[in-house]
Amino acid sequence: MNAPASHNSLDELKNSIIFSSEELMRRKALTYTKLEEEYVKYGFSESNGAVNLIKKVKDYTGSVGVDLKKLERSLRILLETHIKFNNKIFNLYKADGEILKKIYTSLTSRKRISEFFDAATSTMIDDEEDGPLLEEDGFSIFYFKTSRPYYYKDKIIESDEKKHSYDNELNGELIDLFGKWKISLHCFDFIAIDLKNNYIAVGFDFGSFFRKGELGASKEKLERIIGKNIRMAALDSVNFFPCLKNMHDEKDASGNLIGSIIGHRMLTFEGENVSAFSSSNRTDLRVGKYHEAGSQAVQRLDFHGIFKLYKLNASSPVIMIKEDLKILRKQGNKKVIFYALVDDLKTIYDLRFCFVKLLELS
After folding, report:
1. How far apart are the first and last CA of the chain?
2. Dihedral sign, Cα of residue 279, residue 207, residue 198, residue 96
3. What is this structure's pTM?
4. What is the pLDDT of residues 79-93, one digit of tens each?
């Protein structure tokens, strides 16, 4: 974790809290309720909406019972943790140890910035450049600061003048008007190298925001960095398709189910496409009435999506693998999925656990 920023004034503390709050919401790292819980924990009263919550910080002039420093530190840690490890989609490659050492040497020779954002001024660094390096026990994550355009549609509240013009020209009534918006997201992609387990990961930030096709330019950029010393063909791409069934059937030495399947998508032998999720309570879909009435009654299950939670000592990382059923059908008998996504991680060890788990089950 980066060293705490030194904030010497009330304004600096407030700016840092506002910055972290807005970035956490932008990244969808927290629901509003969870963000509000952080504020209440350190002395603020409940509020109606994120805008009003942040306004309380802007208007704050000092009061008994509010610990601004602890709130600032808590939000900054949450933001840094999410940037480092969460909502990351990635490819995995097996590789010879000597090849990995060559890539590692090349990456460590590059000039890097040491922070994910400018904590002193509470601003995101705009330049695209090599980001921080995290290392633990032969596992290294090299971050790369970049930006990607994100598009979304939203409803526009039309003016009366605009509405009437449509009435006159089209002889109809304008009911809804939608706009397509483009925003630039600050992304922290990464290359991770595990010298103990002989693999390399190429990962992308905001994994759930983008379709895989939209990551093409970012992937090419990271592959060019890797390819300065070796050919990408020398790396063995890991196919995650076998993980779908293996994750569903996974048991420990005593025969107990491992983890919790909190979401799955599958096609039954009768051609029925079944999708079920229990993310609200994280109930294991392999047990209980749903499973008894559903998947146990069919002869074959063709999975095309699995969301699985693993309970570790202090965290519960989630691994997600899914592919469009139409794409898998076109692949015939040899089906491949090269992307997986992780979320709800807290440490570098959680990320390593997810990578190694996928290697074991692939």
Report:
1. 31
2. positive
3. 0.86
4. 999 999 999 999 999
